Amino acid sequence: MASSSATKSVDKVTLRVMVDKERNKVLYAEAGKDFIEVLFSFLTLPLGTAVKFGSISSLYQSVANLDEQYLWTRTCKEMLLRPRNSMESYCQKMKLNIDDTEPMKHFICGNWDCVRKERGNLLSIFRNQMCSCGRVMDKVFSPPPQLESLRLGSGLVKETAAFIISDDLCVMPNDFGTVIQLLQKLEISDIDAITEQTVDISKKEVIDILKLSLVSKTSLTDLIFKKKYSEVVNGLKDPICKIGKATSEGGRQISVKVVRRKSTGDILFAEAGDDFINFIFSFLTLPLGGVLHMLEGFSSLNSIDNLYKSLTELSSECYLILKHLKEKLISPPIAAQFGFDNQIIPIGVASSPVYYCHSYIHIGQYTRALTASNTHIVRYPAEKFVLLNLVDPKLSASNASSRGEFAKGPSVYMVTVDLAITPMSSFTAISHLNSSNVSLNDVEERVVRIGQKEGLCILKAWMNSTSGMTNGLNQFITNIKEEK
Questions:
Q1: Is 400 helix (H, G, I), strand (E, B) or coil?
Q2: CB of 308 within 8 A of CB of 291?
Q3: What is the mean pLDDT of residues 215-232?
Q4: Ramachandran area for residue 90 (φ above 0: left; ψ -120 to 50: alpha; else beta)
Q5: What is the pLDDT of residue 121?
Q6: Does residue 214 sit in the same domain as residue 293?
Q7: How far apart, in whole angstroms, are the C-alpha atoms of residue 28 and residue 220?
Q8: Residue 467's CB: how many other CB atoms inside 10 A?
Q9: Is 111 within a domain?
Q10: Which domain holds residue 198?
Q11: Per the domain annotation, does 481 fall within a domain?
């Protein structure tokens, strides 16, 4: 029993929380390395991972339900539903890591001739990919650790660092002046009204904080006083999408046909090709911090925006274990192999590690060396390091026309306002109009061009509401002439 208890204690961290007794409101919390790493790690999570912890989105569910014939490979669905974190090597060293993605493994072809003769794609991070020789890549390969991994130390934050966290997740250095300024800002003058509480935080509470940080301006209060997530969500209003200086000029654009209600202007659904569907699918692979970077820190995700801004103002030399970690946290890339060419939103993709396999190749036949006393065999080995080329999991021998994307084309899909995606069918479209109580006389079609600016608006609106298409695109449709 003692052993079990000790194991459980490892999976918890302690917060000291200052509470306004009269208003049942958290004023601030004191925390060290372990809890702050949890908060910062939120920014590294792919959106496909984050939505699993909240209410599962229609986009996520539609990918789960999509027939694999509409995807280039079976692996594509796995990649979208369980996207990898480009900073997983850091996060796996944290005390409370909520990302349940399995640690990365590597697989090579069982045919050793592929390695010796340097032919084919020789390495995969997904089991059962096909080598170009036709064999299944199912042999586990253990590559040496990358140089950066050897320098990681433990997690993200220095061991002795101490912080103050406000109710809306502003993170600040723990010093008395900061506390005084915060209490004055909160108009707290009566010290007797403040009481201290100690709270244990496990992975369950971490998930609750993540969910609340996306919808609440009082994340710690809602957590400590156990306000229901549904109560917070129901209090939200659908926002009008506004973004910063992003522009669609000169960049790639996609044409989408939008069906909307004439009487109200509300978008009912969009009819789109695989190029737009791949763009929407890619939302699940984008890291939250990378999206915030594109939105200049204004995602309208309440506490998450405060957390992001705090990190941009934090001294990396004083508080992070490596100086360059700050840049990685405020602009994390998409995990290697999870991006694709011609992406509208220019979030970078992490480079794949380069691995070599050591091989011995014998030169010619055995050479006989004659001596006066006897005959013996001498072997002349040549050491060789063979580059292991990574298989693109979105490609296979039968899909040479793919550009490394997820959805197979040419196909036409229906996208509803909450970004649920299904293959296009007239029956499905008419059924959708019936369920929305819209007559055919009240329907119009418009064509809109989706570039970086429009794409960011759709993404931001999707993260903030259940009407991502309407809130993201309606502002761009008024100036679009109806297609003849």
A1: coil
A2: no
A3: 81
A4: alpha
A5: 59
A6: yes
A7: 8
A8: 19
A9: yes
A10: 1-46+83-93+152-236+288-332
A11: yes
Contact status, residue 267 vs residue 405, Cβ threshold 8 Å: no
Two tokens at 424? 């296009």
The verdict on 169 and 310 lying in the same domain is yes
Sign of the four-CA dihedral 159, 160, 165, 169: negative
Contact (CB, 8 A) for 396 and 130: yes
Residue 375, pLDDT > 80, answer no
In this structure, the answer to whether residues 215 and 108 fall within a common structural domain is no
Widest distance between CA atoms in the chain: 105
Q: Which of 45, 137, 50 is nearest to 91 (CA)?
A: 45
Contact 158, 40 (CB under 8 A): no
Residue 48 contacts by C-beta under 8 Å, 6 or more apart in sequence? 60, 80, 81, 82, 83, 283, 284, 285
Give the pLDDT of residue 6: 40
CA-closest candidate to residue 30, choices 168, 157, 159, 175: 175
Give a yes or no: residue 455 inside a domain: yes
Q: Is residue 279 part of a domain?
A: yes
The pLDDT score that the predictor gives to residue 358 is: 64
Q: For residue 422, how many C-alpha atoms fall within 13 Å in the half-sphere facing its CB?
A: 15
Same domain, 260 and 115: no
Separation of alpha carbons 441 and 446, rounded Å: 15
Judgement on whether residues 204 and 126 belong to the same structural domain of the protein: no
CA atoms within 13 A on the CB side of 107: 18
Residue 206 sits in the same domain as residue 193: yes
pTM: 0.87
CA-CA distance, 468 to 484, in Å (whole number)? 27
Greater model confidence, 18 or 114: 18
Q: Which two tokens stand for residue 196?
A: 């201290």
Domain match, 261 and 305 both = no
Tokens describing residue 225? 């006083």
Same domain, 473 and 347: yes
Number of domains forming the structure of the chain: 3
pLDDT of residue 397: 54
